[in-house]
Amino acid sequence: MKALHIAATGMKAQETNVEVISNNVANMRTTGYKRLRADFQDLLYQNMRRVGSQTSAAGTIAPTGVQVGSGVKTAATSRIMSQGTLEQTDKELDIAIRGEGFFQIELPDGTTAYTRDGSFERDPNGNLVTIDGYTVQPGINIPEDGTNLSISADGTVQVADDNGNQVTLGQMQLARFVNKSGLESIGDNLYLETDASGAAQTDDPGNNNFGDLQQGYVEASNVEAVTEISDLIAAQRAYEMNSKIIQAADEMLSTTSNIR
Asked: Could you state, in order of their start, the residue ranges of all structural domains in the chain?
Protein backbone atom coordinates (compact mmCIF):
# COMPACT_ATOMS: atom_id res chain seq x y z
CA MET A 1 0.00 0.00 0.00
CA LYS A 2 1.49 3.34 -1.16
CA ALA A 3 0.00 5.23 1.77
CA LEU A 4 2.58 3.67 4.08
CA HIS A 5 5.50 5.06 2.06
CA ILE A 6 3.81 8.43 1.47
CA ALA A 7 3.09 8.95 5.17
CA ALA A 8 6.64 7.87 6.02
CA THR A 9 8.04 10.66 3.82
CA GLY A 10 5.75 13.08 5.66
CA MET A 11 7.06 11.93 9.04
CA LYS A 12 10.66 12.23 7.83
CA ALA A 13 10.00 15.75 6.53
CA GLN A 14 8.54 16.83 9.87
CA GLU A 15 11.53 15.34 11.69
CA THR A 16 13.73 17.64 9.62
CA ASN A 17 11.37 20.54 10.35
CA VAL A 18 11.63 19.96 14.11
CA GLU A 19 15.44 19.73 13.85
CA VAL A 20 15.54 23.13 12.11
CA ILE A 21 13.21 24.65 14.72
CA SER A 22 15.26 23.19 17.58
CA ASN A 23 18.44 24.72 16.13
CA ASN A 24 16.71 28.10 15.94
CA VAL A 25 15.58 27.86 19.57
CA ALA A 26 19.05 26.73 20.69
CA ASN A 27 20.52 29.87 19.09
CA MET A 28 18.00 32.38 20.45
CA ARG A 29 20.80 34.11 22.39
CA THR A 30 23.51 33.70 19.75
CA THR A 31 24.79 37.10 18.62
CA GLY A 32 24.03 37.79 14.96
CA TYR A 33 22.31 34.42 14.37
CA LYS A 34 19.83 34.26 11.49
CA ARG A 35 16.98 31.79 11.76
CA LEU A 36 16.44 28.93 9.30
CA ARG A 37 13.19 27.76 7.73
CA ALA A 38 12.60 24.32 6.25
CA ASP A 39 11.01 24.39 2.77
CA PHE A 40 9.31 21.34 1.27
CA GLN A 41 8.30 20.08 -2.19
CA ASP A 42 5.97 17.32 -3.30
CA LEU A 43 7.50 14.24 -4.93
CA LEU A 44 6.80 12.71 -8.35
CA TYR A 45 3.25 11.75 -9.33
CA GLN A 46 1.93 8.56 -10.86
CA ASN A 47 -0.45 9.36 -13.72
CA MET A 48 -3.29 6.84 -13.84
CA ARG A 49 -4.99 9.04 -16.41
CA ARG A 50 -3.25 12.09 -17.80
CA VAL A 51 -4.91 15.46 -17.87
CA GLY A 52 -6.09 16.19 -21.39
CA SER A 53 -6.00 12.57 -22.53
CA GLN A 54 -8.53 11.47 -25.15
CA THR A 55 -11.53 9.72 -23.62
CA SER A 56 -13.44 8.63 -26.72
CA ALA A 57 -13.09 7.99 -30.42
CA ALA A 58 -14.93 11.24 -30.99
CA GLY A 59 -11.94 13.12 -29.59
CA THR A 60 -13.36 14.23 -26.23
CA ILE A 61 -10.70 15.34 -23.73
CA ALA A 62 -10.53 14.58 -20.02
CA PRO A 63 -10.73 17.95 -18.19
CA THR A 64 -8.95 16.46 -15.20
CA GLY A 65 -6.67 13.50 -14.70
CA VAL A 66 -5.99 10.91 -12.05
CA GLN A 67 -2.71 11.50 -10.27
CA VAL A 68 -1.39 9.95 -7.06
CA GLY A 69 1.55 11.65 -5.36
CA SER A 70 4.57 9.94 -3.80
CA GLY A 71 4.91 12.16 -0.73
CA VAL A 72 7.11 15.06 0.28
CA LYS A 73 10.80 15.96 0.41
CA THR A 74 12.87 18.67 2.06
CA ALA A 75 13.84 21.09 -0.71
CA ALA A 76 15.88 23.63 1.23
CA THR A 77 16.59 25.20 4.59
CA SER A 78 16.32 28.89 3.80
CA ARG A 79 18.11 31.37 6.05
CA ILE A 80 16.05 34.43 7.00
CA MET A 81 18.44 37.40 6.93
CA SER A 82 16.20 39.96 8.61
CA GLN A 83 17.65 42.52 11.00
CA GLY A 84 17.97 41.47 14.64
CA THR A 85 17.41 43.81 17.58
CA LEU A 86 20.41 45.91 18.59
CA GLU A 87 21.32 45.36 22.24
CA GLN A 88 23.40 47.91 24.13
CA THR A 89 26.50 46.54 25.85
CA ASP A 90 28.57 49.71 26.37
CA LYS A 91 31.68 47.70 25.50
CA GLU A 92 33.87 49.80 23.21
CA LEU A 93 34.84 46.89 20.93
CA ASP A 94 31.26 45.65 20.43
CA ILE A 95 29.98 46.80 17.04
CA ALA A 96 26.57 46.17 15.49
CA ILE A 97 25.59 46.60 11.85
CA ARG A 98 22.35 48.49 11.33
CA GLY A 99 21.23 47.58 7.82
CA GLU A 100 22.93 45.67 5.02
CA GLY A 101 26.40 44.18 5.27
CA PHE A 102 28.75 41.70 6.92
CA PHE A 103 32.05 42.09 8.72
CA GLN A 104 34.97 40.51 6.83
CA ILE A 105 37.02 37.98 8.79
CA GLU A 106 40.33 36.42 7.74
CA LEU A 107 40.53 32.73 8.65
CA PRO A 108 43.87 31.04 9.50
CA ASP A 109 44.08 29.52 5.99
CA GLY A 110 43.70 32.95 4.38
CA THR A 111 40.05 32.47 3.38
CA THR A 112 37.72 35.40 3.94
CA ALA A 113 34.62 34.61 5.98
CA TYR A 114 31.71 36.91 6.81
CA THR A 115 29.73 37.52 9.99
CA ARG A 116 27.12 39.74 11.61
CA ASP A 117 28.64 39.08 15.03
CA GLY A 118 30.50 42.21 16.08
CA SER A 119 31.73 40.95 19.46
CA PHE A 120 35.36 41.91 18.89
CA GLU A 121 38.47 41.88 21.06
CA ARG A 122 42.16 42.86 20.82
CA ASP A 123 44.88 40.23 20.43
CA PRO A 124 48.29 40.55 22.18
CA ASN A 125 49.53 42.69 19.28
CA GLY A 126 46.62 45.10 19.46
CA ASN A 127 44.88 43.81 16.32
CA LEU A 128 41.09 43.81 16.17
CA VAL A 129 39.96 40.16 16.20
CA THR A 130 36.91 37.96 16.78
CA ILE A 131 36.45 36.05 20.02
CA ASP A 132 38.16 33.10 18.27
CA GLY A 133 41.19 35.26 17.44
CA TYR A 134 40.46 35.67 13.71
CA THR A 135 41.56 39.01 12.26
CA VAL A 136 38.90 41.53 11.24
CA GLN A 137 39.55 42.90 7.74
CA PRO A 138 40.76 45.41 6.79
CA GLY A 139 43.19 45.12 9.68
CA ILE A 140 42.87 47.61 12.53
CA ASN A 141 45.70 47.88 15.05
CA ILE A 142 44.89 49.63 18.33
CA PRO A 143 47.99 50.91 20.20
CA GLU A 144 48.35 49.95 23.84
CA ASP A 145 48.45 53.56 24.98
CA GLY A 146 45.44 54.59 22.88
CA THR A 147 42.49 55.89 24.89
CA ASN A 148 38.91 56.89 24.18
CA LEU A 149 38.52 54.45 21.28
CA SER A 150 35.71 55.56 19.00
CA ILE A 151 34.21 53.83 15.98
CA SER A 152 31.94 56.13 14.00
CA ALA A 153 28.87 55.14 12.02
CA ASP A 154 30.91 55.24 8.79
CA GLY A 155 33.54 52.86 10.21
CA THR A 156 36.29 55.37 11.03
CA VAL A 157 38.35 54.08 13.99
CA GLN A 158 40.04 56.71 16.18
CA VAL A 159 41.84 56.95 19.53
CA ALA A 160 43.10 59.87 21.58
CA ASP A 161 46.86 60.38 21.81
CA ASP A 162 48.81 61.66 24.82
CA ASN A 163 47.83 65.22 23.93
CA GLY A 164 44.14 64.40 23.68
CA ASN A 165 44.08 64.69 19.89
CA GLN A 166 42.05 62.18 17.88
CA VAL A 167 44.24 59.90 15.72
CA THR A 168 42.65 57.84 12.94
CA LEU A 169 43.74 54.19 13.02
CA GLY A 170 41.88 52.94 9.98
CA GLN A 171 38.59 52.48 8.18
CA MET A 172 36.32 49.47 8.66
CA GLN A 173 34.54 48.09 5.60
CA LEU A 174 31.51 45.90 5.08
CA ALA A 175 30.66 43.30 2.45
CA ARG A 176 27.29 42.43 1.00
CA PHE A 177 25.91 39.89 -1.49
CA VAL A 178 23.24 39.75 -4.15
CA ASN A 179 21.82 36.61 -2.52
CA LYS A 180 22.56 36.59 1.21
CA SER A 181 20.64 33.34 1.68
CA GLY A 182 23.13 31.66 -0.64
CA LEU A 183 25.98 32.01 1.87
CA GLU A 184 27.32 28.79 3.39
CA SER A 185 27.19 28.55 7.18
CA ILE A 186 30.35 27.03 8.69
CA GLY A 187 29.60 27.58 12.39
CA ASP A 188 31.18 30.07 14.80
CA ASN A 189 28.75 32.71 13.42
CA LEU A 190 30.67 32.66 10.11
CA TYR A 191 29.57 32.38 6.49
CA LEU A 192 31.47 31.66 3.28
CA GLU A 193 30.86 33.03 -0.19
CA THR A 194 29.38 30.56 -2.71
CA ASP A 195 28.38 30.59 -6.36
CA ALA A 196 24.77 31.01 -5.20
CA SER A 197 25.53 34.09 -3.06
CA GLY A 198 27.51 35.88 -5.76
CA ALA A 199 30.78 37.71 -5.25
CA ALA A 200 31.22 40.00 -2.24
CA GLN A 201 30.74 43.72 -2.84
CA THR A 202 32.67 45.88 -0.36
CA ASP A 203 32.34 49.51 0.65
CA ASP A 204 32.49 51.81 3.66
CA PRO A 205 29.54 51.66 6.07
CA GLY A 206 26.79 54.06 5.11
CA ASN A 207 27.77 54.23 1.43
CA ASN A 208 25.63 52.93 -1.44
CA ASN A 209 22.89 51.48 0.78
CA PHE A 210 25.33 49.67 3.07
CA GLY A 211 24.38 49.66 6.73
CA ASP A 212 26.11 51.83 9.30
CA LEU A 213 27.90 50.82 12.51
CA GLN A 214 26.80 51.25 16.11
CA GLN A 215 29.61 51.11 18.69
CA GLY A 216 28.73 49.64 22.05
CA TYR A 217 25.96 47.44 20.63
CA VAL A 218 25.62 43.89 19.30
CA GLU A 219 22.95 42.48 17.02
CA ALA A 220 20.76 39.89 18.72
CA SER A 221 19.40 36.77 17.02
CA ASN A 222 16.33 37.31 14.84
CA VAL A 223 14.66 34.20 16.31
CA GLU A 224 11.21 34.93 17.75
CA ALA A 225 10.09 32.53 20.46
CA VAL A 226 6.37 32.75 19.64
CA THR A 227 6.98 31.99 15.96
CA GLU A 228 9.18 28.99 16.76
CA ILE A 229 6.66 27.59 19.28
CA SER A 230 3.77 27.88 16.82
CA ASP A 231 5.89 26.27 14.08
CA LEU A 232 6.82 23.47 16.48
CA ILE A 233 3.17 22.78 17.34
CA ALA A 234 2.27 22.68 13.63
CA ALA A 235 5.15 20.28 12.95
CA GLN A 236 4.09 18.02 15.83
CA ARG A 237 0.51 17.86 14.58
CA ALA A 238 1.63 17.13 11.01
CA TYR A 239 3.85 14.33 12.32
CA GLU A 240 0.96 12.87 14.34
CA MET A 241 -1.39 12.99 11.34
CA ASN A 242 1.13 11.13 9.18
CA SER A 243 1.55 8.51 11.89
CA LYS A 244 -2.24 8.12 12.00
CA ILE A 245 -2.22 7.44 8.24
CA ILE A 246 0.36 4.70 8.74
CA GLN A 247 -1.82 3.23 11.48
CA ALA A 248 -4.91 3.39 9.25
CA ALA A 249 -3.06 1.80 6.32
CA ASP A 250 -1.82 -0.97 8.61
CA GLU A 251 -5.37 -1.65 9.81
CA MET A 252 -6.62 -1.78 6.20
CA LEU A 253 -3.89 -4.28 5.29
CA SER A 254 -4.76 -6.31 8.36
CA THR A 255 -8.41 -6.38 7.32
CA THR A 256 -7.45 -7.50 3.82
CA SER A 257 -5.21 -10.29 5.10
CA ASN A 258 -8.00 -11.60 7.33
CA ILE A 259 -10.55 -11.93 4.53
CA ARG A 260 -11.50 -15.53 3.89
From this structure: 2-50+57-81+223-257, 86-219
